[in-house]
Amino acid sequence: MGIADIRRQNLVRVLNLLHREGLTTPEEQARFLGNIVPPSKLRLMVETESVIPEIFARAVEHRLRFARGWMDQENVPGRARQPLEEDRAPDSSD
Length: 94
Hints:
Layout: H1 3-20, H2 26-32, H3 39-47, H4 54-64
Helix pairs in contact: 2-3
């Protein structure tokens, strides 16, 4: 699986997580992610083979406090698990 597919799979996981948290529209999700991209681009990244740039991947990780590189890590094939608390980087304010 290439990096574009891995990032797309992880973006879907992130958007599913946001949906479960009550952010159900692309507009709400894009706003939560800091308007890194507009809602229409967010949809395209998921629904097409649109490139998911590294800067976007790093920004999503930063916003969610996931470890750097999390968006580039492949999931277990055939099983799209959701982001878990252990995916988050340790809080540096402790």
